[in-house]
Each structure stands twice: as structure tokens, then as C-alpha cells.
Amino acid sequence: MKKLINDPRHLVREVLEGLVDATPGLALLDTENVLIRHDDRPAEDRPVAVLSGGGSGHEPGHAGYVGRGMLAGAIAGDVFTSPSVDAVLAAIKATAGPRGAVLIVKNYTGDRLNFGLAAEMATAQGIPTEIVVVADDVALRKTVAPERRRGIAGTVLVHKIAGNAADRGLPVEQVAQFARAAAEAVGTMGVALGACTVPSVGRPGFNLADDEIEIGLGIHGEKGVERVHLQPADVLVDRLVQTILDDKGIAPGQRVVVLVNGLGATPPIELAIVARRALARCREVGLIVERLYSGVYLSALDMPGCSISILPVDDSMLQALDAPTEVRSWSSDGRIAPERRIVAAPATAYATIEHAAGPQARQIQAVALAVAAELAAQENLLADLDSQAGDGDLGASMARGADAIRGLPESAFNTPESACMAIADALRRAIAGSSGPFYAVGLVRAASSLQGKAAAMGQDWSAAFTAAVEAVEQLGGARIGNRTMVDALRPAADTWANELARGTEPLAAFVAAVAAAEAGAEATASMHPSLGRSAYLGDRAIGVKDGGAVAVAIWLKAISDRVSVVR
């Protein structure tokens, strides 16, 4: 791999520093990878803050669209990984006042969870925050339900329309309404001529023969919905355009704007050919093309290929798209910032409650450390499973979670309640993708079930575990058979409760629950995925166990083994 980078671990920060150095009016939070439009006005005088973000690797999205007339801030996660809840909340608090914020979120599980939780927290703290989800990928029309489609390049058009609404001083509800209207109307479809290379991985995400391409790809290096032989540009463009028109019901006579987006390694000469045909095809079918944008708006690192977005517009949308903006990735004037501006990030830590050490403190800590050790030991296994049906970050996420658990003070384990809350907070901070919010919400719910108990018996732990599983199901919407971590969690919860109800000895009941979790994880290999990132692969994911379910079985077994030793 040959890349003009330094240490891959510092890549995202250095990208943001480069943007701040070269662009006046921007600032970078000191402890979070958050770029904001610097605003000296008191918070109560600020308009609605439009924010976006997600995994890095999509430059110029998202940080490239921070500036007057578009975004108030952008939250950058690691490459192809959702930013943390804390980073999103810091961005909201750094940019928004009592008029509120609108978060524009591409439809990926980690982004929905982390941005959604941050929005709830901000609203509770007096900053009304709306979520707008963009799911514009029409390639998935036969694979997943419309609400489960990916958000891709059409998101940039939503940024511009929402940013203009906020710039005009509209209230948060109307800004969100304009953004949702654009998000629901826009359709996008892409084609890849090859794979991209994630810097930390160092090799392409998949291999194509010289005469093969992927139709209907995403923007995280995943495969498309169909592999076909290379075809002339005009043939491919006609297919992309027609698929969008059919899916979105765009009829002759409608006014539209067209965005031709390069995915990172497509030269301008090829984008010009694509744009030429996209314009011609739209006119051939009777559309009135009001605007044509062509360039790199939302990339996928160094992926060769492009996407086409079509958005029906009326006068108000067109005026929003035409409105002036200082954002250079939309229209650049070439100025540079005189110096880098760094501002302090708002505090986002939760207040902690001190608990006196209970009789189970040492045992709880020993079990937690045993879980951490086993998750760290199984990092490669989990990474391999996730890379076959997802983005491959699960192993690293669980290893970061293990480190976070090991880093907790001894007092965190004083009571069952304090242990669950401390681990929830640690995992929420350490794991930026989907797993962090799921584990955090489950552990918070378990802590509520264990509130006030200096020690917990088998029935108490079972009830807390069932409460945690219910919280995970409610947050993610998954049920048994969706091929997620719930396929291990729910059988374990039900088996544990049922065995105790029959009078089974507590440890034996828990061992049965672990076996149920392992069986549930094993069963995911034969399931058709319907939720999570593996859903984008459809039947191509069959034969591989779900990494999240396997992780659940691993840590439950670690608990069982440790409890058996000290019993």
C-alpha cells in the first residue's frame, strides 16, 4: 500500500488540522475530532445548528461542508466508523443554542445509534435536537426495506438545503422539515470499478477481474449488489439514471437537479463523460434539469467509480441550492486561514455516584476482568467474522472495550448497580461503532434493575439481564432471526429465567443460558440478514456466523467459567 499519510492512527486528526489551517472561520475541538464553524455570538443568539458526520474516508464529506450556508459542524469518526456519542454531543453543545440543532445522519446503524443517543442527551439538556436520516441508495430496493437503505452522496444536497434553511433563521422544526423533504425525495445509485484500501488494513476490500465491476455499491468499501462485466460509460449511466427514476417515481416534466459524484479515484475526464450522459438521459426522458453538479462530493477513499443522485426540486429547494455559501467544497475562493484556531470542547462526562463496597465487590471485579481478558484474546476471531459480513471493526471494538473495563477503578465494582453503570459508561466512550451504544443501553437498564442492591442473587441477575436484552431490542429493533447479537442474547435471557422458574440451581441455570447463547450464535450462519450492515450483502452473508452474536456467547462463557472457579 502506497499512501501519502503518516501514522494511520492519527490520520483523521491530521486531515482536520489541514482543513483548519487552510480555511478561515473554522475551529477544531481540542479533545474530539469535531470541526465547527467558529461563532463568537452568545449561544442564545445563534441560529439552528445543522450538523453532520460519520466515519472518515468520505472527504470532502463531512468536514469539507462546514461553513456559513451549510453545516455548523462535522463530527469525524475513524475511517468508515461512526463517531462516538460524546463527540456528537460535544459538537452540538459547541455550536447550538436554545434554538436547537438538526443532525443529518446517513442511514448506518452506528451513526443512527450514536447520533440518536446524543440528540436525546442534548434535548434533555435544553438544546432541542432533531434527527434527519438520509437513505437514498436505490440500489438496495430489492434487498432491504426503504427505511434500511444506506445514505450516500445525496446527503450532500440535504446538507445544502438544510444549511440554507438554518441560515435564513427558520426554527428547528422547519429546518428539519426542509431536510427531510430533500432526504425523502433524492435517489442515488453508484458503480465501482475497483475496491478501496482502508489505511489501517493496507489491502483492497475485495478483488475484481480486469473486466468486472460492482453495481450498486456503498461508500464503506463493501461490495455492490451485483457484479457484472465492464460496460461503456453511457450504458452504465443509463442504468443508474433509470433505476433512480423508477424507484423514486420521477415523471416527465419534473424539475430536477443531478449530482455526479466521484468516489475518490475517478479522474475528472471520466466524471465529465458521466455527467454528459446523465444530463442527456434525463432530458431524453422529459425531465427539466435545473442544475448539474459534477465532482468529488462524498468519496470512498480511493475507490474508482461514481454515483449519480437525482433530486426533484421546486422553487424553494432550488433557491436553497443556489444560495451563497462560504463552503469551498461547494464553491471555493482559494483563501487560507491565517492560523489554526483551537477551542475547548464542552464537557460531556456523566456525574458518578459513590457506592460503598458490597460483599460481592471482589467477585464482580474478577468476573469483569475475566470477560475483558477473553474478549481481548478473541479479537482476531471477531475481526475475521465481521470482515466477512460487515466492515471488520468488531474485533478492535471489543478489544477497546476490554481495555476500558480493565481501566476502571476498583471502586467501580462496589455493587452490582455501580459495576453495570461504570462498564456502560466505559464501553460507551471506548466503542464508537454500533456495539458501544447497544452494550451501554443494556447495562444502564440492568443497573436500574439492580438499583439499591448491595449484593444480587441469581434471580436478580437474571431479571437484570432480561431487562438489558429488552433495552437492546428496543434501541435497535432487532428480534430473533434478524442475524444480530439478539440471536444470542434473547435465548440466553429466556433460558436463564425459565430454568430458575423450574427450580434449577442458579449456576446450572446460567450454564444452560450460556449454551443457549452459543446455539443462537451458531444458528446465525444460516440466517438471511435483515438488520445491520450484513443486510447489505443479502444471501452473500449466509455461511458466516454473526460476529455480534458470537461476541455475546464469548463473554457469557467467560462469566460462567469465572463464576464456576470462585463458587
Automatic annotation (TrEMBL):
Top enzyme category: transferase
Positions of the DhaK domain: 7-330
Key word Kinase present: yes
Keywords, sorted A to Z: ATP-binding, Kinase, Nucleotide-binding, Transferase
Residue span, DhaL domain: 362-561
Biological process terms in GO annotation: glycerol catabolic process
One Pfam family here: Dak1
GO cellular component: cytosol
Domain of life: Bacteria
Gene Ontology terms for molecular function: ATP binding; glycerone kinase activity; phosphoenolpyruvate-glycerone phosphotransferase activity
EC number per UniProt: 2.7.1.121
PANTHER family tied to this protein: TRIOKINASE/FMN CYCLASE, TRIOKINASE_FMN CYCLASE
Protein name: Dihydroxyacetone kinase subunit DhaK
UniProt organism field: Devosia sediminis
Phylogenetic lineage: Bacteria, Pseudomonadati, Pseudomonadota, Alphaproteobacteria, Hyphomicrobiales
The encoding gene: dhaK
